[in-house]
Amino acid sequence: MKRLKSELGRLFRASDNAADRIGLVNHDGLVTTLVVTIARSRDWPVVAGLLDGLRENLDLPLPAVSVSGAAGFQLWLPLAEPVARETAAGFLLALRRQFLADIDDKDLGLLPLADGPDRLPGIPAWSAESDRWSAFIDPSMGGMFAEGGGLDFEPNPDRQADLLAAIRPIELDDFKRALAVMTVSERQETGPVAQATPTILGGGYSEPRDFLLAVMNEPSVPLPMRIDAAKALLGHERRWAIE
Questions:
Q1: By C-alpha distance, which of 239, 228, 17 is closest to 112?
Q2: What's the whole-number mean pLDDT along residues 56-79?
Q3: What is the pLDDT of residues 111-153, one digit of tens each?
Q4: How many whole angstroms separate alpha carbon 76 and alpha carbon 33?
Q5: Interior CA angle at 148 toward 146 and 150, to 5°?
């Protein structure tokens, strides 16, 4: 258990006295970890596609992957250096647009956004709802959980620590490069929405605020994404006014 706590602390800055929760934002209000949640276990092929995209398209280290005790998956992307909320929101919205278009909004969580939680339940944990355990998993075994979530036995702490030990936080330069790649790449699909997408992605935005404004004002972007961009931008403007 000591090794597991050490790895949780290394990746997610989780303290021993808060091992049952994983914080996504530090005391300065900056984002330290991004999380993508997929509510349905049968959407594993989309999760696998996102993992491939992070590695092959964006040249980023693979995130930690967990299964929920009830159903679905979580992808944990720890950052080597914290970033502003609006920057994190821009990155998450770009991931959503590029790799997660097949997931309904109700089945997808992108955290932390302006109105989302800043802390999530720790892993592993037992779910009273399903009588199963959440756990970090080897992504190559993800297909085994496509029919249902969680483990029916308590995960071995040392094995959980081994899985986390292989995870590298995303370095800031790599994070910025990946965000730039996503904001300038053009979608390959045909159709009105895809044709309009390069209007946003082709700007080469140097500031997250400009990217969020573009997302918010682009009619072809799904309304929930535009709302999320507006919320992230509002949070940025409020902090600027206070400072």
A1: 228
A2: 95
A3: 998 777 888 988 999 988 888 999 999 999 999 998 887 898 9
A4: 7
A5: 110
pLDDT at residue 198 in the model: 39
The CA distance from 114 to 233, in Å, is 9
In degrees, to the nearest 5, what angle opens at C-alpha 231 toward C-alphas 226 and 235? 145
Q: Are 233 and 216 in contact (CB under 8 A)?
A: yes
- Nearest Cα neighbor of 1 from 22, 18, 13, 19 is 19
Sign of CA dihedral 30, 172, 236, 34: negative
Give pLDDT tens digits for 210-221: 777 777 766 666
Is pTM beyond 0.90? Reply is no
